[in-house]
Amino acid sequence: MKTNTVLTGCVLAAAALGCGGVTGIPIEKTATDFAKAICSAAYKCCTPETLMGNSSAGMSEAECETKTAMDFRNQLQTMQDSQNKGRSKFDQKQVDMCLEAIRGATCDTLTSIRSLSGIPACDSTFATPLVAADATCGQDFECIAGVCQKEPMAWEGVCVDGNAAGSACADNNRCAPKLICDGRGTNMDASDDVCVAEQNNGATCVDGYDCKSRNCVADATSGAKTCQTPTTGQCFYGGGCSAGGRPNVVALVLMGLFVFVALARTRRRAR
User: Fold this and answer.
1) What is the DSSP string of the chain?
2) How far apart are CA 221 and CA 232, in angstroms?
3) Which residues of 211-242 are buried (b: 16+ CB within 10 A; e: fewer)?
4) What number of CA atoms fall less than 13 Å from residue 73's CA on the CB side?
5) What is the pTM for the complete model shown?
6) pLDDT tens string for the chain (271 positions)?
7) How many angstroms separate the CA atoms of 168 and 44, rounded?
8) Are 139 and 159 in contact (CB under 8 A)?
9) Rounded CA gap, 271 and 266, in Å?
10) Rg of the chain taking only CA atoms, in angstroms
């Protein structure tokens, strides 16, 4: 009877206390730390207009902290579940580096980028991936290389390389890391969807999703399109999908972090 009690306790506490080699992610502290750092910077540097695109920014700094912390708790729990399955390992060092960078960033920096992934220290999934190619995965951040390819409505899939830039991304074919699937302005027709790499200002573009700035402008004389600096204000926490690209329901908030990163990293087509 005593032995059963000990075993049961280990099972119930595995995620938090490390039974069976599983370690617990400091979910509450990490969520709170990110919420305070992000929202303090957002309400110091950004305008209400540039924050409007992100519901988690709220209408006040306090509301921002509440909503942002909740988003991070949910995603961190997903990461804990992944770690419990042996598919990834939370990286506290990467988290600490990103938090330090957010706290030290100037307003000029934070209003010149679309997401926290624009800060090098925050362009991370905050996890060490442990899933090899062709093995079972549930999230992109679990794949050592590539992305997690799933069948429609499936919870799990396998890690694959993903399609290269210029390749089609219709019919559930995922783009490789660092690429996004651009519908080319025809969201109801997947036949022209293509994987694109976001370009710097001055590069040739077809539409905004080709550009890191999301601003593709046609020359008044030649009609040639190039990526340009946005003419309207922007904010690192102003978009519903801070990592850039079209919204990714899987990476809901890592807002450019975990998958911000992913958030994060948004590499999936969303319609």
Assistant:
1) -HHHHHHHHHHHHHHHH-GGG-----HHHHHHHHHHHHHHHHHHH--HHHHTT-GGG-SSHHHHHHHHHHHHHHHHHHHHHHHHTTSEEE-HHHHHHHHHHHHH--HHHHTS-SSGGGSGGG-S-SEEE-BPTTSEESSGGGBSSSEEE--TT-S-EEEE--BPTTSB--TTPPBPTTEEEE-TT-TT-GGG-EEEE-B-TTSB-SSGGGBTTS-EEE-TTT--EEE---SS---TT-SSSTTSSS--STTTT-TTS----STT---S---
2) 23
3) bbbbbbbeeeeeeebbbbeeeeebbbbbbebb
4) 9
5) 0.77
6) 444 443 333 333 333 444 434 579 999 999 999 999 999 999 999 999 999 989 999 999 999 999 999 999 999 999 999 999 999 999 999 999 999 999 999 999 999 888 888 899 999 899 999 999 999 999 999 999 999 999 888 999 999 999 999 998 876 778 999 898 888 766 566 678 899 999 999 999 998 889 988 899 999 999 999 999 888 888 999 875 433 233 332 333 343 344 333 333 333 333 3
7) 41
8) no
9) 13
10) 20
Amino acid at 199: Q
- By residue count, the chain amounts to 271
